[in-house]
User: Fold this.
Amino acid sequence: MSKRVTIKDIAQQAGVSVGTVDRVIHERGRVSAEVKAKVLQVMQALDFEPNLIASTLAFNRAIQIGVLMPQLHSDPYWDLPLLGMRRAQQSVKHYGVGLVEQMFDLFSPQDFKRSALALINQKPDALVFPPIFLKESLELLDHCAEVEVPTILVNTDVEHPQVMSYIGQDSYQSGVLAGKLLSMAMNGAGKVLLLNLDKETLNAKHLMDKELGLRHFLEQKDKNSFTVLRQDVEDFDNPERLDGLLKLLLQQYVDIKTVFVTNSRAYKLVEAIQEHAQPHLNILGFDLLPNNLHFLQMGKIDFLINQNASYQGYLAIKNLTDYFIFKKQLPRVQHLPLDIVVAENAAYYLQREQGN
Amino acid sequence: MSKRVTIKDIAQQAGVSVGTVDRVIHERGRVSAEVKAKVLQVMQALDFEPNLIASTLAFNRAIQIGVLMPQLHSDPYWDLPLLGMRRAQQSVKHYGVGLVEQMFDLFSPQDFKRSALALINQKPDALVFPPIFLKESLELLDHCAEVEVPTILVNTDVEHPQVMSYIGQDSYQSGVLAGKLLSMAMNGAGKVLLLNLDKETLNAKHLMDKELGLRHFLEQKDKNSFTVLRQDVEDFDNPERLDGLLKLLLQQYVDIKTVFVTNSRAYKLVEAIQEHAQPHLNILGFDLLPNNLHFLQMGKIDFLINQNASYQGYLAIKNLTDYFIFKKQLPRVQHLPLDIVVAENAAYYLQREQGN
DNA sequence: TTTTCTTGTGTGTGCGCACACACGATTTAA
DNA sequence: TTAAATCGTGTGTGCGCACACACAAGAAAA
Assistant:
């Protein structure tokens, strides 16, 4: 068991003091060129790897991660990433990593802006948020660039130099995957009803991408047999309207066989559907919300694509810890798996969501 | 920013020295009942949580984890858990966690026994292995109990008091899931060919469990329309024989629509199949081996159920680190998700396999 | 009673590193 | 030419904890 190499060892080998070695390692300057070269050479030769445990202990500085998320309990989906972050914080708190949480109203760009400002003013060492409002998010990123706060995005990616890393789904591909599953369920032919249960759908890039993925897949699969009918419903909290709309569509287009709910609100559709005699609809939705899972087990939802919302949050905090404590470089994009969840394998995902 | 509570703080509050507090924390005795109670009470009151970083640093002891695995590169599946373990070791090595690897011949119980002995003699602090040979594994576990080496099983679970934790698949449920997917592919009726491409199939509990799961699902789904035809092939490395056998079966049973390969060797089937005019067979197999993925992308394999073999190994090491360094209790059973992998979502799983 | 053992407690050192500070040797400014 | 700033380097302290050791006081054994 070859003992670990310490800075003391390399100091001795290089014929200098540990302080000098330290200066070389941290590039604090104040070291002559020759000595620096010598130290680096010895470090190479001895294959020195700093003891991160000791390093963290001695560093002894708290890292504050600013977290800007939708108000807790305002929407079941948006609770997941935040809870994931809190779990992650629990597991890295002994590295001195803390969260500064700031919530905003999910449907108010103004509130988003205001909250962002409040958060930045607390001078966090990094920032995590989902760019729900594109324009305001870009402004925020500009602001972050000014005050030099590295940023991780979750849920939706946005191109901006200040974005250090994106953690989340590949929306387009999740649309493709939905196409695959729905085409299987349709047995060769049929119409897919694409349901956007959201506000400002046109402004939500990820929903657009999902639609694109679905359409591309079905076109490439069988242009003539499969078609997509799209319907945006902003008033998704009104079951009667939703049910009425669906009844109307089913009368008009008899060959609707499947429904693709593009976000986590599939359960709202199921709740709204009255038992009017209709052909069995195969429904595909997203995310392991309790309500969705309930209907999945009952057979009223056929597929859920798990976007790992909770794990997104978890990873965001873990990654920032890696970045600050362990000095790891982060990948610009981290696409999480698109898990296909059916009644038969739901339990394990649920368990994992709660576990880490 | 409430500063962390240290043992010094609680020593002060309790009116004792840090040494005494230390003794209470580690239950090393030599503390009077009253003092102990007082210290515990103060710890409660101040909500003391030990600084694990400082603790590990001061502890300063190397943990050696014994790893007993099939010879590398003898079977593509069995490479995965080992590689996962090595990756995990990389990421926890600064806690002083090291691996002692001992390989054995995948098809030789004797060699397993011999290797196990050699490993135990090196007195590792813990042991990880897959109980491939049931009888020999139980003996090994008895031996571990004697020398008090805690053990984690991967891949297959075995009931034994010395097993601290099992990490792996739920074999039965993976059979159920296979049933679900195959029944979808069969559109209401058809025969499933269950193919065990392995030796000593009857002795392999996980294969039996998969079959059970499949049969139960199909029975409950539609007893009359679905049937299962089972075939064990020990000579799976002989493509001609495999192809001949398949041709024969397809002639005999014209309603075979899908094939369930119960382990990671689906690619061997695909490689063996000649292009004799036959109905398209939907094939379901296990695990993200390069060959399997290749055929998945080509459309020759329809589904792969990912048993997270690599992650099993990763978790085993991570969990032992948690156990030894962070003093966490481990769950007796950790079932990993049964990922449904199709061509459209394979990339993300592959990426994750390589990532952590 | 003296000796030995046990019990309860405090003190001190070290884990490997980060960083502040000290200080002589140069270099630059006055 | 002397004072002041700068550079290159070494020393020392502390991060929070684990653990060995010291030591007094009382209990048990001789």
In short: The longest helix of chain B spans residues 205-222. The radius of gyration of chain B is 25 Å. Chain B touches chain A at residues 1, 49, 51-54, 56-57, 62, 94-95, 98, 170, 173, 176-177, 179-180, 184-185, 187, 217, 335-340, 342-345, 348-349, 351-352 (CB under 8 Å). Chain B is about 50% helix and 20% strand.
